[in-house]
Amino acid sequence: MASYQATARKIPSSLQVDVHSRGIHTTIDEPESLGGTNTGMNPVELVLSSLGASLQETAARLATENKFKYEQMTVDLEGDLDAAGFVGDPDIRNGFQEIRYSLQFKTQAGQAECEKFADLVTQNCPIEGMLSHGVTVALDRIEIV
């Protein structure tokens, strides 16, 4: 089983967070309307983006072996998040209540073939699986440095 690692450190500026994995750095921030400086996507936008990227990678991997030809696939994603859950309302789930996405194919394939391929992609997409079926998240340790 492969193990992946990432690190997130708060930057003194605003709500910015520097995240990195494999030496690749990304700034995560909030829009100005939420107290940030709008210098990067916020965490929930990154979740949507991760799902979209994972669907793209899964489709690219599966297309050849399933003889599905397409020039381009676009994934549009939208998620509903009720901020009341984030600020402590026990009746509102903290995080997305629902995520929806649509796939647009530029292809010569018909609707039925596209739907069959989309089902295959959805069933094999690791991020879609984690979001749909949950994953155990555990605090491993606390260190004082």
Radius of gyration: 18 Å
Find the count of extended strands (DSSP E, 2+ residues). Answer: 5
Secondary-structure-derived class:
alpha+beta
Q: How many helical stretches?
A: 4
Q: Roughly how much helix do the residues carry, as a percent range?
A: 25-40%
CATH architecture of the largest domain: 2-Layer Sandwich
Global mean pLDDT: 95
| Name of the CATH class of the largest domain | Alpha Beta
Q: Main beta sheet, described?
A: 3 strands, antiparallel
Low-confidence stretches: none
InterPro entries: KH_dom-like_a/b (IPR015946), OsmC/Ohr_fam (IPR003718), OsmC/Ohr_hydroprdx_reductase (IPR052924), OsmC/Ohrsf (IPR036102)
Protein name: OsmC family protein
Pfam families: OsmC
For the structure shown, list the relevant keywords.
OsmC/Ohr_fam, 145 residues, KH_dom-like_a/b, GMP Synthetase, Chain A, domain 3, two-stranded antiparallel sheet, alpha+beta
Q: Can you walk through the features of this model?
A:
With 145 residues, the chain is α+β, with helices and mostly antiparallel strands. It folds into 2 domains: 1-40; 42-145, GMP Synthetase, Chain A, domain 3. Helices cover 34% and strands 24% of the residues. The chain has helices at residues 43-65, 83-86, 111-124, 126-133; strands spanning 7-10, 17-21, 24-28, 72-81, 96-106. The strands form 2 sheets. The protein has a 3-stranded antiparallel beta sheet, with no helix packed on it. A two-stranded antiparallel sheet has the order 4-5. Helix 1 (43-65) packs across helix 3. The protein is globular and about 55 Å long. It starts with 6 loop residues before the first strand and ends in a 12-residue tail after the last helix. The relative contact order is 0.13. The model has no long low-confidence stretch (mean pLDDT 95).
